[in-house]
Write a structure and sequence with these properties.
By secondary structure, the chain is mostly helical. Helix content is 59%, strand content 0%. The protein has a domain at 24-73. It has helices spanning 3-15, 25-30, 36-49, 58-67. The longest helix is centred in the middle third of the chain and has 14 residues, at 36-49.
């Protein structure tokens, strides 16, 4: 746990994730008083609606699946 990590952890984790509402209460109420859970669900749905983009080269993924007997799609 470096000093740098401790110094920036709260702002990066809690404020930088898009779930925290940093606006005024009045604005929050005018926009429907959405809870953190509701915002998280909207974010998750938006992510899941995006097209799947593989992060590993197909040949490497296949080798990993063969070597470790992974049968998931």
């Amino acid at each position: 746990m470096s000093d740098h990590t401790l110094k920036h952890m709260r702002s990066e984790y809690f404020e930088g994730n898009g779930l925290s509402d940093k606006g005024l209460r009045r604005q929050w109420e005018e926009l429907g008083s959405q809870s953190t859970r509701e915002r998280a669900r909207e974010m998750a749905r938006a992510i899941l609606q995006q097209p799947f983009e593989p992060k590993v080269i197909e040949a490497i993924e296949q080798e990993i699946r063969n070597q470790f007997h992974i049968f998931l799609p």
